[in-house]
């Protein structure tokens, strides 16, 4: 993971600092007493947060947390094994269509007789890196389904099983929750708009986050409700592809999103002075344009972002119009550089086959004059900026464009915090939950990235996003305490 950072707010950075000498000293003392207890044959005490199943009073399987939102990672831990003992851990569940999803990994116990999925990688199995939740997101259906159907339930039980040998098995059930059934939401009450406002119960008015997806044209109820569960009002806005909106992703007015923000800001329970925007892919392009135009937006997270405005996406009239307009005029854009390879990609895209567009977008950036005219004025944004990209993005050169924006912010002496996190071997998609979601291709685009690294990057990016909004959209009460 490559991180670029400049003058981020100290409170956010301090929350991410794990080096605390007094705390480390106390931890060492406590560990010393714990080891003495073990040496004298006294078992270490268990905690109420852990859930355990014990085989013959010797081998113990612990899975934590037992019940949590679907974006919370798990850790499976086996203790009481012999050094080097091999155990198969597996996970299984059914989705809303009763399709069985399974995963497995063969692990070897360490010198303490312990297997901990957060610390060691499996020897073999459905994933191969150190990743505590690998058993969850590596689940696949024997039927060939690419991802699980989530949308008719909000809670699912997952069985974690440890096969010790032919005759010994330990099982533990855990529960994963989507919060959409527990958080109130309402459709946007405006003619010509599509989307939902998610508003969790709170004694205080909550900051508002505008959520903008990419080329897809559906609301993102799972993602929006998970974000709302973290203490935000979330405006999940669709901006093309559904009636009465433009069907193609071209000539989308900036005023469309601004009007929706103004409406949401006035709703009960929403603090209209604390507004952030989360955009992904084309939604990140839209988000950065909005924030650079409207000073009401105080924080931006742009996932797989663009540093420029591009031509719209419309198979019927390819690359002839801007993606966006402002005050009735096309926002300056980079037209696609069409050669023989570009024409072939366009044909493949038009007939519905997945295509990697990275080279087309990269070649469009080669014309420096066009790139400068279409550059997004990120230096005009009135709040902190977080950019997230993958090194193997095959849709467009998000890492390069993120670096360009960082250079632009530094050159203009941007007065707010800004940061670019680039994840090695990750692609264009960043999965935000621990549930199997597929990878590599999505609809008509080849996303790139190695599946395991993309999944791991998605989890980390989601954590960074939530922390970012919590600390940049914080408020103070009369005593100066942060909410």
Beta-strand portion reads 25-35%
At the third CATH level, what is the topology name of the largest domain?
A: Rossmann fold
Number of E strands:
25
CATH architecture of the largest domain: 3-Layer(aba) Sandwich
How many distinct helices? Answer: 11
In total, how many domains does the architecture comprise?
2
Estimated radius of gyration = 24 Å
Description:
The protein is an alpha/beta fold and 483 residues long. It folds into 2 domains: 52-177, Acyl-CoA thioester hydrolase/BAAT N-terminal domain (Immunoglobulin-like), CATH 2.60.40.2240; 179-472, Rossmann fold (3-Layer(aba) Sandwich), CATH 3.40.50. Helices cover 25% and strands 27% of the residues. The protein contains 11 helices and 25 strands. It has helices at 10-15, 21-39, 134-137, 221-228, 254-265, 282-293, 340-350, 358-364, 368-373, 398-411, 451-472; strands spanning 2-6, 52-55, 59-64, 67-69, 75-79, 86-94, 100-108, 115-116, 124-125, 140-141, 155-165, 168-177, 184-187, 194-199, 206-212, 233-238, 252-253, 270-280, 297-303, 324-326, 329-330, 385-390, 418-423, 441-442, 445-446. The strands form 5 sheets. A 9-stranded mixed β-sheet has the order 1-23-22-19-18-15-16-14-13, sandwiched between helices. Strands 4, 6, 7, 9, 10, 11 and 12 form a 7-stranded mixed β-sheet that branches. Strand 13 and strand 14 form a beta hairpin. The two termini are 31 Å apart. Mean pLDDT is 84; it is low at 2-57 and 477-483.
């Amino acid at each position: 993971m490559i991180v670029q950072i400049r003058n981020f707010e100290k409170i956010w950075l301090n929350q991410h600092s794990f080096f605390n000498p007094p705390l480390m000293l106390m931890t060492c003392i406590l560990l010393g007493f714990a080891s003495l207890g073990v040496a004298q044959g006294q078992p270490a005490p268990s905690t109420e947060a852990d859930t355990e199943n014990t085989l013959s009073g010797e081998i113990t399987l612990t899975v934590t947390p037992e019940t949590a939102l679907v974006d919370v990672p798990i850790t499976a831990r086996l203790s009481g094994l012999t050094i080097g003992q091999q155990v198969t851990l597996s996970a299984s569940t059914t989705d809303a269509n009763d399709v069985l999803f399974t995963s497995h990994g063969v692990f070897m116990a360490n010198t303490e007789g312990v297997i901990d999925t957060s610390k060691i990688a499996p020897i073999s199995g459905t994933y191969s890196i150190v990743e505590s939740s690998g058993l969850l997101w590596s689940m696949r259906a024997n039927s060939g389904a690419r991802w699980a159907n989530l949308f008719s339930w909000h809670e699912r039980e997952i069985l974690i099983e440890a096969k010790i040998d032919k005759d010994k098995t330990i099982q533990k059930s855990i529960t994963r929750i989507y919060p959409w059934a527990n958080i109130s939401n309402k459709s946007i009450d405006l003619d010509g708009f599509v989307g939902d406002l998610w508003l969790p119960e709170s004694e205080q008015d909550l900051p508002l986050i505008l959520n903008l997806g990419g080329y897809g044209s559906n609301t993102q109820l799972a993602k929006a409700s998970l974000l709302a569960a973290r203490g935000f009002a979330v405006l999940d806005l669709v901006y093309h592809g559904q009636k009465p909106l433009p069907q193609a992703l071209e000539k989308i007015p900036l005023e469309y999103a601004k009007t929706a923000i103004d409406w949401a800001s006035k709703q009960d329970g929403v603090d209209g002075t604390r507004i952030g925007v989360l955009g992904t892919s084309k939604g990140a392009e839209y988000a950065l344009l909005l924030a650079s135009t409207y000073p009401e937006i105080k924080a931006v997270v742009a996932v797989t972002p663009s540093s420029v405005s591009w031509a719209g996406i419309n198979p019927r009239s390819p690359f002839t119009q801007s993606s966006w307009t402002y005050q009735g005029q096309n926002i300056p854009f980079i037209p696609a550089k069409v050669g023989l390879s570009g024409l072939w990609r366009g044909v493949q895209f038009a007939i519905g086959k997945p295509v990697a567009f990275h080279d087309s977008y990269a070649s469009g950036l080669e014309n420096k004059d066009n790139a400068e005219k279409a550059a997004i004025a990120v230096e005009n944004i009135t709040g902190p900026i977080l950019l997230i990209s993958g090194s193997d993005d095959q849709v467009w050169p998000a890492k390069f464009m993120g670096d360009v924006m960082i250079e632009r912010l530094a050159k203009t002496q941007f007065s707010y915090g800004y940061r670019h996190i680039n994840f090695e071997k990750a692609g264009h998609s960043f999965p935000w939950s621990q549930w199997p979601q597929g990878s590599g291709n999505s609809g008509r685009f080849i996303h790139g990235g190695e599946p395991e690294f993309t999944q791991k990057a998605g989890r980390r990016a989601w954590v960074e996003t939530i922390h970012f909004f919590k600390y940049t959209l914080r408020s103070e009460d009369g005593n100066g305490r942060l909410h």
